[in-house]
Amino acid sequence: MMWKVARFAAASLRGSRRLSTAIPAPSIVHKRGADILHDPWFNKDTGFPLTERDRLGLRGLLPPRVISFEQQYARFMESYQSLEKNTQGQPDSIVSLAKWRILNRLHDRNETLYYRVLIDNIKDFAPIIYTPTVGLVCQNYSGLFRRPRGMYFSAKDKGEMMSMIYNWPAQKVDMIVITDGSRILGLGDLGVQGIGIPIGKLDMYVAAAGINPQKILPIMLDVGTNNQKLLEDPLYLGLRRPRLEGDEYLEIVDEFMEAIHTRWPKAIVQFEDFQMKWAFETLQRYRKKFCMFNDDIQGTAGVALAGLLGTVRTQGRPLEDFTKQKIVVVGAGSAGLGVLSMAVQAVARMGGNRATATNNFFLLDKDGLITKERKNLDPAAAPFARNQGDIEGLKEGDNLIEVIKKVRPHVLLGLSGVGGIFNEEVLKSMRESDSPKPAIFAMSNPTKNAECTAIDAFKHAGPNIVFGSGSPFENVDLGNGKVGHVNQANNMYLFPGIGLGALLSGARLITDGMLQAAAECLASYMTDEEIQDGILYPSVNR
Ligand SMILES: NC(=O)c1ccc[n+]([C@@H]2O[C@H](COP(=O)([O-])OP(=O)(O)OC[C@H]3O[C@@H](n4cnc5c(N)ncnc54)[C@H](O)[C@@H]3O)[C@@H](O)[C@H]2O)c1
Ligand SMILES: O=C(O)C[C@H](O)C(=O)O
Ligand SMILES: [Mg+2]
């Protein structure tokens, strides 16, 4: 067989400073002719110069004119912009799905061009390939499906994974994002359709951390679904059976982790959007054995902590005053508990007392304030359960408004998945906060699951608040030339860096100390001027 060497995908991207760290020497392509045109890793569409057409057996398979990469880029952006123009006035969901389709088609055809446009236009395209549109894509995945992306392991593959893993065409994989689809954003159990999330997360790895796109691998672990609507949908693409539970479930994940690390011992695995019990269980089970982390627990916590440190600065206080901030967290799931656990570590690192670190934290779930009186108190939430009467009148099951009125928190942070629960009354009660700049974080995704909108937050809680949301909102016009800044408090600010850092350092494990350092590093990017304007995170472009 004749082996051809071509300087391909990597070459066009290598101009980017961010990509230069991770992209290695030119890829070697073992394909010829039409096989190359149908391989998005190597395809250049009409961009193949005549010499390459000759060498690779492409002559006659393409129209004769060679179109440069820059021209292809301009043509794509033009069609994207005309799509925007032509869909004006149509419902948001139609417009964003149309945008996702055009980007997805490019992704499937020519990854080099896809990642170039994504990197250059990340602020505009992130809401399409990531939250909120990715949520809509997952909800409609079985209908939208045209081509597979990543790998799918199912309960039916038990005992076969070790050989299946060798079906993946790349020699090396650096970064894996895996989900079992059981808690996709705030949209619940979407079964196999959750694969959109690992795909979107890994796009962020390429765009934001310069990870080589040929060394990423999105994974769906399909152990069934408990979503009745999907089970009854004849076009549903996943296993039509209820989710595996208990040991049966863990055996599948164990087998997958062994298979992955047998083929790629150094691959980093990010667990994403697992329901809480499995999120915690798998993190504990694997974190001392493999280089892995859970983004919803740990990535979210780091971004939230960076935001919380920023809010201390907005109040004109030294960072150590973080230990005195009263924080109400709404949602005692993987994300909410992750945030509070990391906040405790931060207090300890700042010299505060670990034993009393939780004194200023208040945790609510769907049954209200969690206290030690709670029946069937979840052991994961137990460290944050209050004593009744800690603060005058505070009691088990108090609703959010009662808690805010009694506590007068500096920060109200939502990770409940419930859209709109920071209603007018809740937001107005934050006006009584003990902070001169109360902070409101509506971190649930996608947009319709956010605890409140940015407009409502500034309208009801007042113009002096600091605001963050998991999905993007426009900045708010406060009148008199003033702007209410919207921060996107989303783990996307950390996970690409965590993966890249672990990769470049050759770390064997991802430790709490590394995550704390990442959070503090993120917080330290912000200048005092930005912080004074309520800007807690760098812009997505940065
Ligand atoms: N912005 C980010 O970076 C980020 C990161 C992770 C998760 N999230 C979002 O956070 C949400 C929750 O994720 P999770 O993994 O913690 O989910 P989860 O299912 O583990 O936890 C949800 C929690 O919310 C509580 N809850 C439900 N209804 C409530 C109500 N009416 N009032 C108070 N609490 C209520 C539940 O009791 C549970 O404790 C999702 O919408 C997800 O998209 C955002
Ligand atoms: O996916 C996101 O946008 C953030 C987070 O991981 C989530 O589960 O909501
Ligand atoms: Mg997630």
Automatic annotation (TrEMBL):
Name of this chain's protein: Malic enzyme
UniProt-recorded Gene Ontology molecular function terms: malate dehydrogenase (decarboxylating) (NAD+) activity; metal ion binding; NAD binding
Keywords, comma-separated and alphabetical: Metal-binding, Oxidoreductase
Catalytic residue positions: 130 (proton donor), 201 (proton acceptor)
Family of this protein: Belongs to the malic enzymes family.
Keyword Metal-binding: yes
Binding-site list for a divalent metal cation: 272-273, 296
InterPro entries reported for this sequence: Aminoacid_DH-like_N_sf, Malic_enzyme_CS, Malic_N_dom, Malic_N_dom_sf, Malic_NAD-bd, Malic_OxRdtase, NAD(P)-bd_dom_sf
Annotated organism of origin: Trapa natans
SUPFAM superfamilies: Aminoacid dehydrogenase-like, N-terminal domain, NAD(P)-binding Rossmann-fold domains
Gene Ontology annotations for the cellular component aspect, listed alphabetically: mitochondrion
Cofactor or coenzyme needed: Mn(2+); Mg(2+)
NCBIfam families: PRK13529.1
GO biological process: malate metabolic process
Domain Malic enzyme N-terminal: 107-287
Boundaries of every Malic enzyme NAD-binding domain copy: 297-542
PROSITE patterns: MALIC_ENZYMES (PS00331)
